[in-house]
Amino acid sequence: MWSICSKMVKVGMAKPCGLVKTCHLVKPISATRITGRYLTHQKGLPSLPVPALQQTLERYITALEPIVEVEELMNTKQLVSDFQKPGGVGERLQKGLERRAHNTENWVAYLDYRLPVVIHSSPGLVLPRMNFNDKEGQTRFAAKLIAGVLDFKTMIDNETIPVEYLGGKPLCMNQYYEVLSSCRLPGVRRDAVVNHAKSSSPPKHITVVHNFQFFMLDVYNSDGTPLTVEQIYVQLERICSASLKTNVEPVGILTTQHRDIWGKTFVNLIKDRTNKESVLAIQRSIFTLCLDGPMPEVAEDGYRSCAAAQMLHGGGSLWNSGNRWFDKTLQFIIGEDGTCGANYEHAPAEGPPIVALIDHVVEYTRKLEMIQSSTGPLPMPKKLHFNITPEIKKDIEEAKQSMDVLADDLLMRVIVFNQFGKNFAKAHKMSPDAFIQVALQLAYYRMHQHCCATYESASLRMFRLGRTDTIRSTSSASAAFVKSFDDPDKQNTEKVDLMEKAVKAHRSYTNLAISGQAIDRHILGLKMQAAEEKISIPDVFKDPSYAKALHFRLSTSQVPSKTDCLMCFGPVVPNGYGVCYNPMDDHINFAVSSFNGCKETNAAGLAQAVESALLDMRTLLEQTPRAKL
User: Fold this and answer.
1) Residue 572, φ and ψ in degrees, nearest 5
2) What is the DSSP-derived secondary structure letter of residue 347?
3) pLDDT of residue 11
4) Of 254, 176, 240, whose CA–CA distance to 210 is shortest?
5) Does residue 360 carry a catalytic annotation?
6) Please, which of 83, 328, 400, 402 could form a disulfide with 288 given CB 3.0 to 4.6 Å?
7) CA-CA distances (angstroms) from residue 105 to 30, 45, 109?
8) What's the rounded Cα separation, in Å, for the pair 297 and 526?
9) Sign of the CA dihedral 424, 428, 434, 436?
């Protein structure tokens, strides 16, 4: 059996095609076993289809046209022709995939990869700055946040989360049941994911981290009712008082390491019984709450960018990177200075269920608090102890150094584009997402003078256990538009016509992707099927064009929310950008990342270029009268 790593959409095989740099033949992660309404709904969903081979290969050639040279494309066309000959290897692999689809709920499953989850895989999420800047304000807000998560958990436990729809069709809700009480487990060669929610004794505690020290906090009373906000606040005060010292070993920073290194360290760490019990308590917890110290002081215009870095990686070993357990699926982060957000490990779920949970929690924290009396004395939260051997101490020091290199190498730039939002595109009868994606193409072209393979995440939740496929935002239509935009010999009417064609092309590919007819999952599945059948890798997968197609220099995602928040992630290739955006009615939040070690890329420069592209596209539309039909 094989399975594809989380975010494989964004990484390539030889070179990254997503947030996953390699993939392995592994046992797929099983979905949580749930009965009742959830199961009835899930059974009614269609299975992910396997597209027709010829259709995918034709679309593959079309996708290559704007990003490879003519000579390369001619060679690729010949390789594709050989691959799909009747009775050939392509037909054999296609039949193998179709058998898999017939025998499994979802022929594409997700697994893991070996680069650190920090920056390379786990996204961060930044909330609007909260109105407190001291320890009491921090713990009071944290208590309300915990109560809000438990309120959402009640809907999960009772299976009362409203089913979501897209275009009138119900979506798979499985990911909602995977984000709480789950954790990634490090392995020497391969990781796993475990969900404790439906075990015989589901967890009743969360993990709280303060000053690099871990605590097990029971959040339910003996009668099964959740603790009140006031009770939680009292318990958090106890935790903070019991963890005032800061000269402790930041065991959590071990989770920032390369997965091979962390896997070996983990084996040594849990040889000690105390350590093993502490780690298990963290892994089993419903979620992790990180009570951070303040982040570095920055100018007001740099606050959001610094906050995004805190959510993504914690700022390095001297700040808050050790105040985490990055293997945990969901970590809420609350800084003493009002900086708040989350970090999530990507294997069990995509962004939308996380954002839905956070929207619920933020709304919950804004409600007026009802005074609730305590029901009696509460047991002291349990501190989780670790015995640090000289070998583990050495591993911690190495992890600190590696984390600092990672943090220093990432350039994160957050901007709030406040000239207009999604309503502007709607007024011009254009898809807001497609309009933004075309603006990203224009910004990139202006900076680099060429088009590149671009990834945008497309949800496959119309299908049972569906995750994502790739919307290939770079098209022949978008290439024609960006090359014409700054050409003084082109008339504005022609430029507007090209813009509309580019927007329509993106919308069309998006519709293909969400209906299971995009190319990336299918092509990757064919390659992995070859490995399973022990067939030598076909030449079409060794082709330089294939490597270019999967080298996503622009890795993008739209993550809309009700809350004025923003998700962020790192680039998926060394010379690339990560771009996440949240389009609101009258403004757009952008988070752009790049690596300082690459001299070709600059997140701040691209962020500025995106602003200019959006404004110039608006000006073009407003100054060019369109013929009335």
Assistant:
1) -105, -5
2) S
3) 32
4) 240
5) no
6) 328
7) 10, 10, 9
8) 50
9) negative
Closest CA to 372 of 228, 471, 158: 228
Tokens of 516: 């299971």
Q: Nearest-CA neighbor of 353 among 226, 145, 171, 146? A: 171
Distance CA 439, CA 345 (A): 29
- Number of alpha carbons in the 13 Å side-chain half-sphere of residue 32: 28
Give me the pLDDT at residue 2, please. 45
Is 181 in contact with 286 (CB distance < 8 Å)?
yes
d(CA 455, CA 556): 6
d(CA 179, CA 348): 6
**Alpha-carbon distances of 23 from 101, 113, 428, 520, rounded to whole Å:** 19, 6, 42, 14
Predicted pLDDT of residue 531: 87
Question: Rg of the chain over CA atoms, in angstroms?
Answer: 25
Q: Measure the CA–CA gap between 151 and 341, rounded to whole angstroms.
A: 18
Q: 241: how many CB neighbours lie within 10 A of its CB? A: 9
Could you tell me which residues come within 8 angstroms of residue 485 by beta carbon, excluding any fewer than 6 positions away? 442, 495, 616, 620
Paired tokens of 359 = 């929207």
> What does the block give as tokens for 614?
């959006």
- Architecture (CATH level 2) of domain 124-411: 2-Layer Sandwich (3.30)
Helix residue ranges, H only, 367-491:
390-409, 422-427, 432-448, 476-485
What CATH number is given for 4-112+412-623 in this structure?
3.30.559.10
Q: Residue-wise over 262-271: b if at least 16 C-beta within 10 A, else e?
A: bbbbbeebee
Q: Where are the domains of the chain?
A: 4-112+412-623, 124-411
* Region for residue 137 given its phi and psi (left: phi exceeds 0; alpha: psi -120 to 50; beta: otherwise): alpha
Angstrom distance (rounded) from CA 511 to CA 491: 31
Give the strand pairing for 4-5 and 577-583: unpaired
CA distance 12 to 422: 31
List 554's β-bridge partners, or say none.
454, 577
**Nearest CA-CA partner of 337 in 142, 124, 138:** 138
Distance CA 252, CA 282 (A): 10
Distance CA 571, CA 554 (A): 8
Which residue stretches of the chain have pLDDT < 50? 1-35, 110, 627-629
From 120, 196, 346, 551, the catalytic residue: 346
The pLDDT, as a whole number, for residue 245 is 81
The amino acid sitting at 249 is E
Residue that is written with structure tokens 């009615």 in the block: 585
**pLDDT in the model for residue 372:** 59
